[in-house]
Amino acid sequence: MTQASICSFERRSKTSIQRLRSQDRAPELIIAELWSSENNRPFTQQVPLRALLAELPGPMTERDEMVANEVVQWLGTACGLAFLKTFKTQLAEEGYHPF
Fold first, then answer.
1. Domain membership flag for residue 9
2. Range of the structural domain that residue 18 is part of
3. Rounded to 5, what percent of the chain is helix, strand, coil?
4. What does the pLDDT read at residue 12?
5. Tens digits of per-residue pLDDT, 60-89?
6. Mean pLDDT score across all residues of the chain
7. Long-range own/partner contacts, residues 65-72 (CB < 8 A, 24 or more apart)
8. 16 falls within a domain
9. How many domains is the chain partitioned into structurally?
């Protein structure tokens, strides 16, 4: 696996790719592009995907990458955004204000 391909749109299921190409999926596309950008740093730097998957036994596979990429994309769906909103609310209730 090359560093440049680590979170490319091709490392998603066909359904996920189709959703990204749909014009009404702006939040999914924004978060997918942000995730891709965060994971395409110079090879010498740790990237989120590798840090996330580092604790799995064995070498990181394309399937591992696909699952992680699609979970992040899910955060841009209506359900994912509702989840993040609830997370942000609960953080505030606990006194955390990182956003």
1. yes
2. 3-93
3. 60, 0, 40
4. 77
5. 888 898 899 899 999 999 999 999 999 999
6. 83
7. 65/1, 65/6, 65/7, 65/11, 66/11, 66/12, 66/13, 69/7, 69/11, 69/12, 69/16, 69/32, 69/35, 70/12, 70/13, 70/16, 72/31, 72/32, 72/35
8. yes
9. 1
The DSSP 8-state label assigned to residue 99 in this structure reads: -
- Where is average pLDDT lowest: 16-20, 37-41, 42-46, 71-75? 42-46
* Cβ count within 10 A of residue 57: 4
Closest CA to 34 of 64, 5, 7: 7
The answer to whether the Cα torsion of 19, 24, 30, 31 is positive or negative is negative
- pTM, full prediction: 0.74
The residue type at 58: G
Tokens coding 60: 């990181």
User: Is 2's pLDDT higher than 50?
Assistant: no
Dihedral angle over CA of 93, 75, 48, 13, nearest 10: 160
Number of other residues whose CB lies within 10 A of the CB of residue 27: 15
